[in-house]
Design a protein that fits this description.
Layout (H helix, E strand, L loop, with lengths): L1 H24 L15 E4 L2 E4 L4 E7 L2 E6 L5 H11 L6 E2 L4 E4 L5 H38 L5 H34 L2
Antiparallel strand pairs: 1-2, 3-4, 4-6, 5-6
């Protein structure tokens, strides 16, 4: 019974950490990656799809992303979706493809991006703590139903806390790494 609670706890907390890493990929660092466009959705034939399912998205150099739609009639739709996503650059539509030119980041932009990363990390920590609460609630129900003893319940809650501490440390380490990427010129 308790092993299921530990497994639940690990899976949920790992999911929170993975979500954080996914969010970090959308933040701009010194070098531009196509991951910055991961959250851009376009209306393709009546359904909202990720940009990379409607066009070829390539980072042609350290400051440029080129978007070549498979259907040229989608150029304006893609351009509007990029503007709506507010990624910090204006799309340049030349009639065949869209180019995004990212100027070098200023110190202020880097600090703002680092602040966003901290906010994302804080959200992930909150999610991990919520997962801890759910796991502890399950343990308390097991104790109330006399499935486990009070001592086993206390030991189980201590183990859940150790799992929580492990994931909080992982989140902090990921944040430090990302901040270093962002703030390095």
């Amino acid at each position: 019974m308790l092993e299921e609670v530990y497994q639940f706890c690990e899976e949920k907390m790992q999911g929170s950490h993975d979500h954080l890493l996914s969010n970090f990929r959308t933040l701009r660092t010194g070098r531009v990656t196509t991951k910055i466009l991961d959250n851009v959705r376009v209306d393709s034939y009546g359904s909202m799809v990720p940009l990379d399912q409607a066009a070829s998205v390539l980072a042609t150099d350290a400051t440029t992303i080129t978007i070549s739609p498979w259907d040229k009639t989608m150029l304006n739709v893609i351009e509007k979706a990029i503007l709506k996503a507010d990624i910090g650059v204006n799309p340049n539509n030349n009639g065949a493809e869209i180019k995004l030119f990212f100027p070098p980041m200023t110190v202020d932009q880097r600090q703002d991006t680092a602040k966003k990363a901290k906010g994302m990390a804080e959200d992930a920590k909150v999610a991990v703590r919520n997962d801890r609460k759910k796991a502890n609630d399950k343990i308390k129900v097991l104790e109330k139903d006399k499935v486990v003893t009070a001592d086993d319940s206390k030991a189980a809650q201590d183990k859940v806390q150790k799992i929580t501490d492990k994931f909080i440390t992982k989140i902090d380490d990921s944040l430090k790494s990302k901040e270093q990427d962002i703030l390095t010129v």
